[in-house]
Design goal:
Chain lengths: 143, 143, 143, 143
């Protein structure tokens, strides 16, 4: 699957450069293609909140970035611009735990794309969080 | 207003420590108290996305952190645990631009607290984003 | 303000016709114009849930319809098509209570419009719910 | 599966009574049990918006009601109270079309339950909408 190695290279490039994407440096791309992208992360102190668990802002950033990677593997091959994003936090993920971030493209229209992301504990499959992300992919620069 | 200096000290403490809150290092607390918190940020390369604007994950983290600071200035004085968060992205904020993050407590019940956050351009008051954040503040450890 | 009477007429027309908008028959348009719309509703048994309070689906419909009325009073004068909507439920509204639905246009771009809705108890101003609504207003028929 | 007939009876009871749940009168319960509930609806003029498609408020009400039915088939057997709900609208559903509403319990904690709902076209499985619903199921009367 060529998409997986492509997204993997992209992620390496993004997280070496300066910018907020460097917070994704621990993310491992497991598979990518056909509008889907699956990544894994071992939660470390760099992603923790004051309680020693995955920070809610980091969870939101995972929803944003992994769904964007999924979108880039559709026929449109665009990153788009965020319109709406929501996250439901169901269970904490302590430092040291392994989580799976599974993003799917629900629909890719001419102007808007719709993506869904499940974040689960690798150990037992229970939900850490679920998010949804709507992106503008129209040709115009302005929404 | 004693709350402002308290939240300011807390923010300094949080961003010096290891953890994801260090991404907030550029945040300036303007005022805090009575369930409200106003902060400012000059967008730098550290918070940018690939397009040179404020990263959507950083925007989400601002909604999370500044609303939590607002919640800590209510009578309950708790940080709580995130339940639901949503963000609507309306306009980009380029590197170098000044943004205002204005968080309000809409309601603080016995088990749940509800917060709203406006992120605007300081120059003209136009919206960058708006978010809402529901937090669990019950006494039980588990949601 | 001519917009108020226009939106009032529109609402009367909509709720007489067949269609789901007939659930809005009790809605009173207080004012409308410049991207804003304020309505009032006395909760009756027609809008109640099994617990004798305003039904969550009716609350969501109020967010949808009143924000759309607000959008129709902008320069664009369009109803648009829903993209994303969210509602945070803070407090019940019993049958007999009066509620205020206050919708504002946060931003009206070329393709997307962003609206926010506060639903409060008329008696004391406390929040029943808050919602946000993103609508597609582009010229193309398909999102 | 006894749960299916139980939820079917409940739905019949709810939609005969006075109250907003009567808008669900066309809903057919296909299966229910173990925290899941699948229903079908043929869109009629009663559920339509001004454009002759499923009304966004009705879509939101479907997310609300069918996810609540799913929750009632968990071990907790409670209806709960809405905390947060979001809906992403992906594609219209014209009058006459058949739609499937598929609700799942993502997690049922001691105080909060988290549900997800897919609404798809029966003909081709494409998404009409996707929603998420957080409900308070704690023993206290107040959130």
């Amino acid at each position: 699957m060529p998409s997986t190695s492509l997204v993997r290279q992209l992620m390496q490039f993004m997280t070496k450069e300066r910018g907020f994407d460097t917070v994704m440096k621990g993310l491992r791309v497991v598979s990518a293609g056909n509008g889907n992208c699956v990544c894994e992360l071992t939660v470390t102190e760099d992603e923790q909140n004051r309680g020693g668990s995955l920070h809610g802002g980091m969870t939101a950033t995972l929803v944003d970035v992994v769904s964007t990677c999924a979108l880039m593997t559709t026929e449109r091959q665009v990153a788009g611009v965020s319109v709406d994003m929501n996250i439901t936090y169901m269970k904490g993920a302590k430092v040291g735990s392994e989580i799976v971030i599974d993003a799917k493209t629900l629909r890719c229209g001419s102007t808007l794309a719709f993506l869904s992301v499940d974040i689960t504990h690798k150990a037992d499959g229970t939900f850490v969080a679920q998010g949804r992300h709507t992106k503008f992919i129209g040709s115009k620069s302005s929404k």
